[in-house]
C-alpha cells in the first residue's frame, strides 16, 4: 500500500478527496448529457412557428426518453458508488485505478447516449443501441469489480465486517442493469421501439425484486454483530 | 433506511458527499448557461466591424436578459437547497432519488434556456417560453416536494424541530417562482415582450413579500425553543 | 441572518459548502476557456499538411495569448476569493447573493474571451476588447464589493479583527486588474496590438507594487495583536 | 507566507479547498475529453445504416485509442497530485500559482487531444502529435517542479520528513511520461502508426520499472523513522 507512506493525519482527507473527485466526474457526466439534446436551429431547420417546433420536438421524443434513461442510469451508479464507499475506510493504489476505470466507462456514457440520440429515428439500425448497451454493460461490470475489490475481507478496506449475504446482494444489484440491457438489445431485433422502454423495468427490479435478498443480508449482518458482541463479552 | 447499514463514523461524510454532488451539478448547470450565448461567428454572419457586431448584439439583447434570469433562477434554487440542507442531519435512499429528480429538472434548464434564446426574436411563438416556464415549474414543484420530505417531522431528518410556520414558509417560498412563471406565460399571449420582464418581480416578492411570514416563523421557532427549555429545566 | 435558524453544528459545513460551490464554478469556467480554442477543422479549412496547420496556428497565435491571460485572470480571482474567505467564519444571505453576482461576472468570462478570440485578427475592431475589458472590470468591482462586505467590522464575519491597512490593501489589490484593463483598452485605440500585452503587467504590479502596502498591513496587524494581548493580560 | 495572516482554525480548510479546486479542474478535463469524440452526424455524413456507421467508427478507431491514452494520462497525473498532496500540510502563495501553472497545462490537454484526434488519419503529419507530446511534456515538467517545490525540506510544507530517496523516486516518476512521449514522437517519423502505441509502455514502467527505487525509498524512510525514535527516546 502506497498510502502507508502518508501521515495518518492525512488518510481521511485523502480518502474523501478520492471520492469527491469521482463525484466531480459523475456530476459533469450527468450534466453533459443535456448537451446532446441539441436546441433545434431555427434557420437551419426552417422552424419559425410553434407548429414547426412542436413537430420537430415530437419527432425527436425518443431523444428525451433516452436522456431520461441515461440520467437515471448515471444517477443509479452514483447512488451505488455512494453506497459502496459508505462502507469504505481505506484505499489502495489498485483501488484508485480500478475506480478510474469505472469512471472511464461513465465518461463514455454521454458519447454513447449522444450516438443513440442521433440515430434514434433510424429504428432499423442496431449498432447505436448495441454500443450504448455495451457501454452500460461495461459500467455495470466495472461497478461489480469495484464492489468485489472493496468488500473483499482480505483487503481490510471496510469500516466493519459485512456478511457474505450483503456482498452477494451488492453483486446481484450491480448485475441487474447490464442484464436488462443485454435483454433489451436482443429484443430490439424483434421489437425495435418497444425494447427502448424495457430499461424502465430496472427501478422496479432494484426496488422490489431485491427485498428478499436485502432482508437476508440485514439478518446476517445483525447475527454477525450479536456474535461479535458475544465474543467481546 | 439503507444508511443504517453503514458505520456511524461515515454518516456525516456520506451526507456531505450527497450535498456536494448536488452542488457539482448546480455549478455545472449555472456555468453551462453561458455556452448557450453563442459567440457570433464572424465569417458566417459577415461581421467585420464594430457596427456590425453591435447590431448583432443589440438584436440579441433578449438572450442576455434570458441568461441573467436563468442564472438568477438556478442561483436561487441553489440558495434554497443550501438552506434546506442546513437543517438536515440525515438522509434516506428515497431522499437521494428525490434529490436526483430535482437535479434532473435543474439539468434541463440550460436546454430550455437555450431554446428560449434561439427563438427569442420570434415573439409570435409561445412554445419556447411555454417549455421554459414548464421546466421552471417542474423545478419549483420538485423543490417543494424536497422541502416537504426533509422537513416532515415523522422522518426525523432534521437537526432540530422546526415550527409548522417555518415549514409553511418554505412551502410558499418554493411556489413563488413557478407561480410567477405561469403568470408570465399567460401574460405573454397579450404582451409578448413585457412578459419577459415579469420574472424580475421574483426577488422583490421573495425578499419583501415574505417578511411577515418570516417574522412569524422566527417567533414560533423561538417559542418552541423556550418551551423546550422549560421542559428541560 | 437566516443562518441563525440553522443548528450551530451545521454552520461550518454550510460555510464550506458555499465556498466549494464557488470553487466548482471557478473550476468549470477556467476549464471552459479551452473550449473557445477551436480545433481547426481539417476539411472545412483544407488543412492536410503540417505547413497548413502551422500557418493556421501561427495566424491565430493571439487566441493563445488571450487564453493565457483569461486563465491567469480567473486564476487570480480564485486566489483572491481563496484569500478573502480564509478570513471568513460566517455568512449572510446577502453575502450569498453578492457572491453569486461575483460568480455571474466570472461565468461570463469564457463568453467574452471567446468573443475576443473570434475577432482577434480584426485589430481595427474595438468592441470585442471593450466588452472583454468591461467584463473584467465588472469582475474586479464585484470582487472589491465582496471584500468590503466580508471585511466590514460591523458585520462580524471574520475569524479575527484585521487592521484598516489590510482592508485597504485588499481594496487596492482588487482594483489593479480593472484599472490595467481600462488602460489597455484606451491604449488599444493607438496601439491595437501592443495593448494586448499590457495585462502582462498585472502580476508584476500585484507582486512587487504591493510590497510596501503589505508590509504596512502586516505591521498594523501585529500591533493590533500585541495590543490585544496587552489588554488580555 | 500570506497564509500566516489567516487564523489557524482556517488553515486546514484553506488547504483542502486548494486541493479540491484542483480536483474540480481535473474532473472537468478528464470528462471534456469525451466531447472531442464527435458523434457522427447522420445527415452530414450520409450514415443511414449499421454498415455505414461501423465503417465510420472503425476508420476513426485511432481517435478512441487517443481518448483512452489521454484519459489514462490525466488520470495518472491526478493520482500523482493525490499522492504529492498526501504528504502536504501547508501551502504558500507561490505553491498556489505553481499549481495553477500545472493545471494550465492539464486544461490544454483536451485541446491537444482534440487536435490529435482531428488529424489522426493524416499519418504523414507530425505537428499534431508534436503539439500533443509537447503539452504532455509541459504537464510532466510542471508536475516535477510541483513535487520539488512541495518536498523541499527548507519550505517545511510536509507532514513529516521524507528521505532523499523518496524525493528522487517522485522526480523519476514524474519524468517517465514526458520521456516516453519524446521517444514516441521521434519514433513517429519512422513508424507513424506503431508510435501511437508506445505510451502503453507507461503503466508498465511506472508499475514494474520503479519497484527497486520504491523499495529503496521505503527502506530509507523506515531508517529515518527508527533514527528519530532513537533520538526521541
Report on this model:
Chain A is mostly helical. Helix content of chain A is 73%, strand content 0%. In chain A, helix 1 (8-32) runs parallel beside helix 4 (93-118) and helix 3 packs antiparallel against helix 4 (93-118). The first copy, chain A, is globular. The model of chain A has no long low-confidence stretch (mean pLDDT 87). Chains in contact: A-B, A-D, B-C, C-D. Chains A and B meet through helix 1, helix 2 and helix 3 of A and helix 1 and helix 4 of B.
Number of helices, counting only DSSP H or I runs of 4 residues or more of chain A: 9
Order of helices and strands of chain A: HHHHHHHHH
| Percent helix range of chain A | over 70%
Structural class of the helices, strands and pairings of chain A? mainly alpha
Biggest interface in this structure? A-B, 40 and 42 residues
Given the C-alpha coordinates, what overall shape of chain A results? Answer: globular
- Please mark out the parts of chain A with pLDDT under 50 across 5 or more consecutive residues, or reply none: none
Q: Tell me the strand percentage band of chain A.
A: under 5%
Mean of all residue-level pLDDT scores of chain A = 87
Topology:
The structure is a homotetramer of 233-residue chains.
Chain A: H1 8-32, H2 50-59, H3 61-86, H4 93-118, H5 127-151, H6 164-187, H7 192-195, H8 201-209, H9 211-232
Helix pairs in contact in A: 1-3, 1-4, 3-4, 3-5, 4-5, 5-6, 6-8, 6-9
Amino acid at each position: 500500500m502506497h498510502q502507508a507512506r502518508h501521515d495518518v493525519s492525512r488518510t481521511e482527507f485523502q480518502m474523501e478527496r478520492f471520492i469527491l473527485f469521482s463525484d466531480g466526474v459523475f456530476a459533469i457526466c450527468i450534466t453533459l448529457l443535456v448537451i446532446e439534446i441539441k436546441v433545434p436551429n431555427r434557420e437551419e431547420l426552417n422552424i419559425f412557428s410553434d407548429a414547426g417546433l412542436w413537430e420537430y420536438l415530437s419527432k425527436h421524443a425518443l431523444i428525451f426518453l433516452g436522456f431520461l434513461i441515461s440520467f437515471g442510469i448515471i444517477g443509479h451508479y452514483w447512488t451505488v458508488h455512494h453506497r459502496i464507499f459508505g462502507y469504505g475506510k481505506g484505499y489502495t493504489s489498485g483501488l484508485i485505478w480500478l475506480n478510474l476505470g469505472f469512471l472511464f466507462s461513465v465518461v463514455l456514457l454521454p458519447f454513447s447516449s449522444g450516438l443513440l440520440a442521433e440515430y434514434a429515428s433510424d429504428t432499423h439500425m442496431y449498432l447505436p443501441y448495441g454500443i450504448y448497451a455495451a457501454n452500460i454493460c461495461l459500467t455495470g461490470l466495472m461497478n461489480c469489480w469495484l464492489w468485489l475489490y472493496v468488500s473483499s475481507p482480505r483487503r481490510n478496506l471496510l469500516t466493519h465486517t459485512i456478511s457474505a449475504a450483503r456482498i452477494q446482494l451488492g453483486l446481484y444489484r450491480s448485475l441487474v442493469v447490464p442484464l436488462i440491457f443485454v435483454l433489451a438489445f436482443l429484443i430490439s431485433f424483434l421489437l425495435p421501439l418497444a425494447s427502448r422502454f424495457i430499461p424502465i423495468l430496472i427501478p422496479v427490479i432494484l426496488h422490489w425484486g431485491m427485498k428478499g435478498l436485502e432482508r437476508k443480508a440485514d439478518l446476517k449482518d445483525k447475527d454477525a454483530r450479536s456474535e461479535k458482541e458475544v465474543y467481546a463479552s
